[in-house]
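Hi team,

Below is the intake form for GDSL esterase/lipase from Aegilops tauschii subsp. strangulata. Please confirm the fields before the structure is written into the shared record.

FORM ID: S-0412
PROTEIN: GDSL esterase/lipase
ORGANISM: Aegilops tauschii subsp. strangulata
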Amino acid sequence: MASSASVSVSGRGGGFLLPAAVLLAVAVIHARGAPAAPCVPRVFSFGDSLADTGNFPFLYGNDSREPALRTPYGETFFRRATGRFSDGRLIVDFIADTMGLPFVRPYLSGRTAEDFASGANFAVGGAMALGPDFFRGRGVPMGDRMHLGVEMKWFHDLLDLLCPADRADCMGMMNQSLFLVGEIGGNDYNIPLLSRVPFEKIRTFTPSVVAKISSTVTELIGLGAKTLVVPGNLPIGCVPNYLMIFKSDKKEDYEPETGCLRWMNEFSKYHNRLLIDELEKLRKLHPGVSIIYADYYGAAMEIYRSPEQFGIDHPLAACCGGGGPYGVSMTARCGYGEYKVCDDPQKYGSWDGFHPSEAAYKGIAIGLLRGTYTQPSISTTISSCPQLTELGSSV
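The structure came back. Fields below:
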């Protein structure tokens, strides 16, 4: 969310890449000679708009108020709107591509078992970890929304399609597949934050959000999953819309090295600490399972601390939005109203004020795939993947 040397240097939060190494890592991701055997046979993904590769249009395709259903969304890579909440590819796209698989098919776009030969994506833009009843029971107004429970129901339906005679027939597939459980939970905070629920109250939701993620991981393990990647939350204090909404005149409210809101980033770190602790408990309960924490926060902070190393000039501004210092306004948003679109989205850390640009997603994905921001390292966990080995050696 990193001018002409090719050395690796260490900074806070881990090593970061200088441009020559970034270029090499990107080249590894994009290299396509003779097709290599996939590192894993399937990828299954759960989450929200940070991971949705196209379920959203099947649920809300008739809603003309949803800008993500039309250009300029998707303009950088796909040249059309795909339902992704960015100008191009997401982290899950870069992961699948590096693993030698096609982009993960949205669950709602498939009909037959053959449609899901390489996996399925259950993520939906706007999804939450917890169901709406949790929030209503705590006095937070909440309409009907997608949540992790529904996504898991879809997954069970898919297992019935893939293994109609006996669920046990799916055990081998489950053992060999890669599961991405998130990012999920961000909207459990975003929606109350935007509704001006007191922050102290929002903070009390975190143990329940983490417990829901944990129970989902446990359920997948019970079904046979052996390799799971569980992302933490991004640094929400660096989100342009929040920088606008919660603008402060107090210098101490901002991180001096990034310009991000300190208190919001501290909250992201709080969520992530609880999640890390919970995943460690799960590892002890399931010693034969690889449970990988994906440090989205750390990987993104590399971009915010050293944006020039990723070719980004405006890390805290949106490419598409209403203008202003953060590229956003209260009167226009990307694809709606009198919005503006920048000339080069690759120079921006944010696409629309809430979602990262493809350039930022790519930087985060590289940090994850080369192992720096996955614990344990994904490049050693999936040891039979030459693409990951090559990517790791580019550091």
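SUMMARY LINE: Residues 128 and 147 are 4 Å apart (CA to CA).

Thanks, M.
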